[in-house]
Design brief:
Rossmann fold, 470 residues, nine-stranded mixed β-sheet, 22 strands, elongated, alpha/beta
Length: 470
């Protein structure tokens, strides 16, 4: 997923600034290459937010057998044995590096007995004896509990910063800081970078976000970036931004057949390449069938396609494919990529990152996403979702990827979320009308940008071979 786009990197990357990789390609993308070397960095967030894991993954990524050592100092938070015991559960842990190139030690008792000023002597001795490339102090915030005054902390930090800079050592201060402490705690004044990790409760699950608050001497990708904690550390999903080059709609004149009998004629030959189409309709109107039909038509024409489902599980999708004469294995071999995510586990950042990565890796030219309403229910920030979908649609347009999004409506109402309408180049409205005991499905083209489309309502039928429009 390291191909995930950031900003216009060529114009902002500081090539003369030496970087320290984090061990996570996506986080390096956000930082435009990693942390500046020989810098002082703060990793902040509430307990359990992932700060220590981020620091330890970075340590093992930069530890070389014949290189300068990496030091991890614990203070008054947790004993070394406990820290190492939990560290051993991660896949990035390397037993051969522990005790040699990576060294853990506790300095809490020495600080408690001698005061915060002892940290200067501890750092000086470590630098002179071991010449470490990286020093991590966890928790640095806990040192405040031993301080007698702010001036004492400020003086200690001034001396520590001087030592670290003089001996070209990169430091990471890990702590349970809150946003209101940034302006009052002196370590933030000497920090070259600040990374905030947060965890928000959303229903029965948590959403985790990472934000760069400061990165001295460098540009970075701003905003909230989703992440998960896995057995290999943090999996980060950089925020998707709009492409630097806007889509040239006037160049995308190729027509894309929908695969729906009778629909292309109403669209004056089909949809335009790279455009986004929203298929609206109430339950049972045929939205999912139309979206699947669109994706399958792609692989029948030799176009790699993708179908993203939040409603139909893999078994149900296999039944859908069987109705079109395909089994899952056969469809995959022909170029159909299927992604199913349970609506219970929806996380916008991970879904968008996975979709974008698959589109780039597999050369996808058609994609169907069923359904946008599930994404809206899963998000805590509708503006964030709108921005993501807009950026995604813009990337699809630049790449020439034709997209179909389904959206459930109530009755004949269109978008209940009006901002979504602006994302659509085309809108198809599917309805079910009742006359006595008889029900009739219909289709109407509400909007088709740049197409001389039909405006009438047409009968829609679902047959054994899919949807047909009369």
């Amino acid at each position: 997923m390291s191909s995930f786009p950031a900003a216009d990197e060529a114009s902002v990357e500081q090539k003369s600034l030496t970087r320290l990789p984090t061990g996570n390609a996506e986080l390096d993308t956000i930082l435009f290459g990693g942390f500046p070397a020989h810098s002082i960095n703060i990793l902040m967030g509430e307990p359990g937010s992932g700060k220590t894991i981020l620091a330890e993954r970075l340590m093992f990524a930069n530890a070389e057998d014949e290189g300068r050592p990496v030091l991890f100092f614990t203070t008054l938070s947790e004993p070394v044995d406990k820290v190492v015991r939990y560290l051993q559960q991660f896949r990035f842990y390397d037993e051969s590096k522990l005790g040699t190139v990576i060294q853990y030690s506790s300095i809490g008792q020495q600080l408690a007995e001698q005061g915060v000023g002892a940290l200067v002597d501890i750092i000086k001795e470590a630098i002179i004896d071991l010449q470490p490339q990286i020093i991590v102090i966890d928790s640095f915030k806990a040192i405040h509990d031993l301080s007698t005054s702010v001036p004492e902390m400020r003086k200690m930090l001034y001396e520590v910063a001087g030592l670290l800079t003089a001996y070209e050592t990169t430091a990471f201060f890990v702590g349970e800081y809150s946003a209101d402490q940034i302006s009052t705690y002196p370590e933030f004044a000497v920090a070259d970078s600040m990374i905030e990790l947060a965890r928000n409760k959303h229903g029965t699950r948590d959403e985790r976000f990472l934000r760069v608050l400061k990165l001295r001497g460098s540009a970075y990708l701003e905003g909230l970036h989703g992440f998960r904690i896995t057995d290999d550390g943090l999996v980060v999903y950089p925020r998707l931004v709009s492409p630097a080059t806007p889509p040239a709609y006037d160049l995308l004149t190729e027509r894309v057949p929908t695969g729906v009998n009778g629909l292309d004629a109403l669209l004056d030959g089909g949809l335009r390449r790279g455009r986004s189409t929203f298929v609206l309709g109430q339950t049972g109107a045929g939205k999912t069938t139309l979206a699947m039909q669109f994706a399958i038509e792609g692989i029948r024409r030799g176009e790699p396609s993708m179908y993203v489902s939040f409603e139909e599980n893999p078994t149900q999708l296999e039944v859908q494919l069987a109705a079109f004469g395909l089994d899952a294995g056969q469809a995959h071999e022909q170029g159909l990529n299927i992604l199913y995510v349970s609506p219970v586990e929806l996380q916008i950042d991970s879904i968008v990152a996975t979709v974008y990565s698959t589109v780039k890796k597999s050369g996808v030219k058609r994609i169907a996403i069923d359904a946008v309403g599930d994404l809206m229910m899963a998000t805590t920030d509708t503006q964030r979702l709108h921005s993501y979908l807009y950026a995604l649609a813009q990337h699809f347009a630049v790449e020439g990827v034709s997209s179909v999004f389904t959206y459930e409506t109530v009755g004949k109402d269109l978008f209940t979320e009006t901002r979504m309408s602006a994302l659509a180049d085309n809108i198809l409205l599917l309805s079910i009308q009742f006359e006595g005991r008889r029900a009739q499905r219909t289709l109407r083209i509400v909007k088709a940008r740049g197409i001389a489309h039909d405006l009438d309502e047409h009968e829609l039928t679902i047959t054994a071979s899919g949807i047909e429009v009369g």
